[in-house]
Amino acid sequence: MFNKRTKIKELLSIEPDGREVTVMGWVRSFRNNQFIAVNDGSTHQNLQVVVSLGLLNDETLKRITAGASLKVTGEMVASLGKGQKVELKANTVEILGDCDPEKYPLQLKNRPTLEYLRENAHLRFRTNTFGAVFRVRHSIAYAIHKFFNDKGFVYIHTPIISASDAEGAGEMFRVTTLPFDKTPRNDDGSVNFKEDFFGKSTNLTVSGQLEAELGATAFSDVYTFGPTFRAENSNTTRHLAEFWMIEPEMAFYDIEDNMDLAEEFIKYIIQYAIDHNREDLELLAQRLIEEEKQLPQDKRSELGLIEKLEFVLNNSFERITYTEAIDILLNSNHYKKKKFQYEVKWGIDLQSEHERYLVEKHFKKPVIVTGYPAAIKAFYMRMNEDGKTVAAMDILAPGIGEIVGGSQREERYNKLIERMAAMHVPVEEMQWYLDIRRFGSVPHSGFGLGFERMVQFVTGMTNIRDVIPFARTPKNCEF
């Protein structure tokens, strides 16, 4: 069998007892025609392969270059060098794939920048930083499914193609099979979507929430975990056009239950990453320290990456109302010294700078803000008794700002009809959604967690494009 091999992560933990093993991986470096650093992606650490002089001919030695792939069989022996207790004394070395050192973009001597690696995203998995990031991303994805499965939630696959705009934002990617050069038109010049594949206007989903609500009114507790799309022309370190969302919906939950679950969920994810990816997090923590050395002292993180994660685990999230948040901002020295770029007053949608001030400067920990003005929130959020605010909640995290958005949903049929009319949501097209308020309606709640922002928070990466394999952003759809 060709693929009878042992992964390097496992080999680095065994005793140097002379056992024969086979390793396959890629060359990171080759020194003195004798020492090969091999990596197979199971860990950021390399296994040192020792090639005895005379074992390989000159032609083979020339082919062992950074990026080349090898199959090595040999004996696990004690290492004489520093850094690891074992090494592989090679008996046979087979080159599986050559790599031209003159053309290979990842040369150790050049230490490529993150921007350079974004341009070569198809190869960046092979670097220590991105190997660590995507191993952590995998663990977090697994932890999400485990968390909800262990609580008895049902995983619902909601549509990628949708005819509704759950957020009412209108920033959607159109899905159509109509020809661009001969688009059918109505008499008034508008597009005749009756000629389209679905017979109506459709788009890539911005959220699976509305469909998940349907599931919650049958299974009680459900969640979605899938891609969502926003055609928002935002070239920032926090936005993507294609990203993944986790959206649980729970029947018989009010806003307090919703907040409790969201806080427990975030802490569970962080704890899982610390327990299962400590080595990767330590590497990323050191990377963050090196990155922040370029920043002024007042711009550097007060806590290291792992210390920040443990701090979040060990402290309850601060809970304040939107009105209290505005008061804190208005009374801050930051506001008085005109350091905020965007205005602060009751009724605004909090900007990232406001959110980060609350969590990083004022409370110095994650914050849950509730009771937002109805005018700036979606139609499905439950109206509070004051008639001005809704039972919404956003969780704000250090370094990122909003990481979770959720609410208690409006379960009262007449109230929802009024809200839809006020926000110009077409009632006739949403009868399926209204039906769950007509047939056994119950109080229910849910939230959405941006997966990439969660990965950003756990890994300490400052640009969201560095925590998704292939970023989709304005004017960028490579690979």
What can you tell me about this protein's structure?
This protein is of the alpha+beta class and 479 residues long. It contains 14 helices and 16 strands. The protein has helices spanning 8-11, 58-63, 114-119, 128-150, 209-219, 255-276, 278-292, 305-314, 322-330, 333-336, 352-362, 413-422, 431-438, 451-459, and strands spanning 20-31, 35-39, 47-50, 69-78, 86-97, 154-155, 161-162, 174-175, 202-204, 221-229, 242-251, 318-321, 367-373, 389-397, 401-408, 444-450. It has an eight-stranded mixed β-sheet, with helices on both faces. It has a five-stranded mixed barrel with strand order 1-2-3-5-4. The chain is globular and about 85 Å long. The two termini are 33 Å apart. The mean pLDDT is 94.
